[in-house]
Amino acid sequence: MEAFDYQPSAEVDLHQLSPDALESQRERAMKFDVIVKLLLLFIAVSLGAIAVHLYIAPSAVQAQSSSNSVYFEPGTFMLRAPDGSRQVLGKIAVDLSNGNVWGFPTLQQDPYPTQNVVPASPPVSHPFLLGKFAVGDMTR
């Protein structure tokens, strides 16, 4: 692989240039240098202004509420339906938005529904209402 070797398309011998042409090339190079330095100065000042603004007047942090406001109690418990129709092992979930307490049967000590036989699809636990917390009374 050949090394890249820059060769200008038209060779310019600086000794053959007139002093005016040489001076105009220097002026163009200096103007370009001034423009580059001004642009870099503008970028640096802009970044500094952003940093100072964020330090002096930081924006307020806002917590985003979660649409899922359900708390699952750790462990498994004996779940008893209020009408006495069911008594099974399962997980307890509390809907924090309205205070409803739900029971999800697991039928064993595992914290999720399982089956001894390998099914075609995973088992699904359907909840039943255990009770209700009067969360509205807490604001009184």
Structure description:
By secondary structure, this protein is α+β, with helices and mostly antiparallel strands. The protein folds into 2 domains: 43 residues; 70 residues, no CATH class. 27% of the residues lie in helices and 19% in strands. The protein contains 1 helix and 5 strands. Strands 1, 2, 3, 4 and 5 form a 5-stranded antiparallel sheet that branches. A hairpin with a 4-residue loop joins β3 and β4. The longest helix has 38 residues. The radius of gyration is 38 Å and the shape is elongated. The model has no long low-confidence stretch (mean pLDDT 82).
Main features:
elongated; 140 residues; 5-stranded antiparallel sheet; 19% strand; alpha+beta; 1 helix
List the helices and strands and how they pair.
Layout: H1 19-56, E1 70-72, E2 77-80, E3 87-95, E4 100-105, E5 128-132
Antiparallel strand pairs: 1-3, 2-3, 3-4, 4-5
Shape category: elongated
Estimated radius of gyration: 38 Å
Number of strands: 5
The portion of residues assigned to helices is: 25-40%
Largest sheet: 5 strands, antiparallel
User: What order do the helices and strands follow?
Assistant: HEEEEE
Number of domains: 2
User: What structural category characterises the helix and strand content?
Assistant: alpha+beta
Cα separation of the termini: 83 Å
Ranges with pLDDT <50 over ≥5 residues?
none
Percentage of residues in strands: 15-25%
Q: State mean pLDDT (0 to 100 scale).
A: 82
**Helix segment count?**
1
Outline:
The protein is an alpha+beta fold and 140 residues long. Helices cover 27% and strands 19% of the residues. It has 2 domains: 17-59; 70-139, no CATH class.
